[in-house]
Design a protein that fits this description.
62% of the residues lie in helices and 6% in strands. It is mainly α. It folds into 3 domains: 80 residues, no CATH class; 26 residues, no CATH class; 45 residues, no CATH class. The protein is built from 8 helices and 4 strands, in the order E-H-H-H-H-E-H-E-E-H-H-H. The strands form 2 sheets. A two-stranded parallel sheet has the order 1-2. It is elongated, with a radius of gyration of 33 Å.
């Protein structure tokens, strides 16, 4: 079922209330206005149809406004349910089966994004850092990581991308 944000829903409801208020007002005052005055104004706007009464013209205008695509879209949006944004915990994400733990960097990633994520620089750098910690058998590999960063910067600067 389609949903809409709370802001869009409020804008659509306000829009529809304004349109309906205007149309109700026009329909209410139409019988009270002298037809001569009304027709004269419509002539100025070149919108008066031949052989039609003022009430028919107001009904036609009201119908056209209600059938306008923008009015119909906002009317439909004003009746949509407001989508509720729920932030899932890591446990809830994993339980749905739509999320996985990346074996390279231990982050929780959406299944559909996993391949793109593994090509991500952050994922690769975390994987490299974990490999350094394993190879050097120590948790703090800051010095080694800095050395690798300097080598990578040199490789980029000198166009030797195989070292990146």
């Amino acid at each position: 079922m389609p949903s809409v944000s709370p802001e869009e829903h409020k804008k659509s409801v306000d829009f529809m209330n304004a349109i309906n208020g205007l149309l109700d007002f026009v329909e209410t005052i139409a019988p009270l206005i002298k037809e001569k005055d009304y027709v004269e104004q419509m002539d100025n706007l070149k919108m008066v149809y031949d052989n039609r009464t003022m009430v028919e013209i107001v009904n036609i205008i009201a119908q056209r406004v209600r059938e306008n695509p923008i009015v119909m879209q906002n009317d439909a949006r004003s009746r949509l349910t407001i989508k509720q944004k729920k932030v899932l915990t890591d446990q809830e994400k994993l339980k749905t089966g739509k999320w996985l733990i990346c074996k390279n960097c231990d982050r929780i990633i959406c299944k559909t994004y996993m391949n793109t994520h593994r090509e991500n620089d952050v994922c690769r750098r975390v994987q490299d850092s974990k490999a350094l910690a394993k190879d050097f058998k120590k948790l703090d590999t800051t010095r080694e990581t800095n050395a690798i960063s300097i080598i990578r910067a040199w490789a980029v600067k000198t166009h030797r991308h195989k070292f990146c």
